[in-house]
Amino acid sequence: MALTGLEIFKLLPKTNCKKCGMPTCLAFAMALAQKRAKLEDCPDVSDEAKEKLAAAAAPPMRKIVFGSGDNQVQVGQETVVFRHEEKFYSPTVLAATVSDKLTGDELTKRIESANALQFERIGTKIGVKALAVVNDSGSSEPFASACAAAKDGSELALILVTDSPDAMAAAAGQVKDRVPLLAAAMPDTAEAMAKIARENGCPLVAKAESIEALADLSEKIKGQGIEDIVLSLEGLSQRDHLYNFSRVRVLSLKKVFRPLGYPTISFVTDGDGDTQVAAAISLICKYSGIVVVDTVEPWALLPMLTAVMNIYTDPQKPVQVEPKVYKIGEPDENSPVMFTTNFSLTYYTVESDVEASRVPSYILVVDTEGTSVLTAYSGDKLNEKTVADAMTKHDVEKLVKHRKLIIPGYVAVMSGKLEEATNWEVMVGPRECSMLPKYLQEIWN
Q: 106-122: per-residue pLDDT in tens?
């Protein structure tokens, strides 16, 4: 169990030197107990104390990394149960299955379909991060062959899914340079699977039917020298999965119960695409670090990936675009100029509607710390000065020969002061940007 602040304090030098940035050693001890400070921040702590404090200083949920190169993925290292307490750090990894019963063109096509599950949403690249090769054949040779094909045909991280130590050994050796995640060890195969993981330098999934059995299994695997573990619960309904994953989250983060201090993996392979989407999104929210789905349909993966993006966005830091002038089409000196804020959702909505108008235009993006037009105006982050300064900074007057600026209809009230600040004619645009195409085609022209 984790040490309390007072227990940590007894192991510190008690000099109150302030080198750690805290006013006293007691304050540092309390911060360390709450995972709000790092042990290395204290330069004078003894080696003996470091050893005793290692458990207290370690994160409550271990970081697990698998894959290689630019396609390496990370799960775990979360610090809070609820997103609003701080933020979530390691976005859920979505993986698509590849059965080892597939051969030839069918196998190649499945791998290519999984590779193609990449999208762009509000300027951010999102997509499937892993291939889960499944030992549906029950034999070692087809499994090893499918894993080799996945390695050759995809740069995505690999998850090797089999309950057979023989099949796992045959496949892991062929793809160990890609550092696959091995899934999974059960109580009766723990030693054999741990040996394979240890020999190939791979993280290992521990699979059991209850939280209690899972805690025992993780300790057993750790005793075999494997530190990088991912937890899996099998044979549970969707309701029980969500309930037990929530329990694991609380026990690992609030109670700092080390045997459960690892990320989790879920296999959503039953039902049609709609059923898998619903189940996967539920597990993304509560609290699966990896979700494996048995579909490669883009329409099914996009809502899952969107859910990941939404859940793992920092709630204290809105998604933003770079403040600058964006060209839509091929604008010239006679093209309209308008402004909006650097909140991503606002900008890409405006951009889409301007593109729909087929009127080449300039969009000036004003830095409002990632807030929307009305929010920024209400908080005085969007006013005549910020707009005028942005126009000057980005040399807007050099782009066009006219002096007309289109502003969002929701901030029409600032038009008078903006004209005084810029000496430009201010044209009040529509309140809803969905009306921009008609405005640009009929009123501007």
A: 999 999 999 999 998 88
d(CA 178, CA 424): 59
Q: Is-contact 44 19, C-beta < 8 A?
A: yes
Among the listed residues 361, 379, 374, the one whose alpha carbon sits nearest the alpha carbon of residue 437: 361
Neighbours of 5 (CB within 10 A): 16
pTM of full prediction above 0.85: no
Give pLDDT tens digits for 338-374: 999 999 989 999 999 999 999 999 999 999 999 999 9
Tell whether omega for the bond before 287 is within 30 degrees of 0, i.e. cis: yes
Percent of residues in the chain assigned helix, strand, coil, to nearest 5: 45, 20, 35
Residue range 153-199, pLDDT digits in tens: 999 999 999 999 999 999 999 999 999 999 999 999 999 999 999 99
Q: Cα angle at 71 between 214 and 64, to 5 degrees?
A: 25
Q: Which domains are delineated in the chain? A: 5-57 (1.10.15.40), 63-311 (3.20.20.20), 325-444 (3.40.50.11600)
The DSSP line for 8-30 is HHTTS------TTSSSSHHHHHH
Return the exposure string of 7-22: e unless at least 16 CB atoms fall within 10 Å of the residue's CB, then b: ebbebbeeeeeeebeb
Closest CA to 72 of 210, 181, 197: 181
- Report d(CA 385, CA 330) in Å as an integer: 29
How many angstroms separate the CA atoms of 438 and 46, rounded? 71
Find out whether 340 and 408 touch, Cβ atoms under 8 Å: yes
CA 338 to chain CA centroid, nearest Å: 33
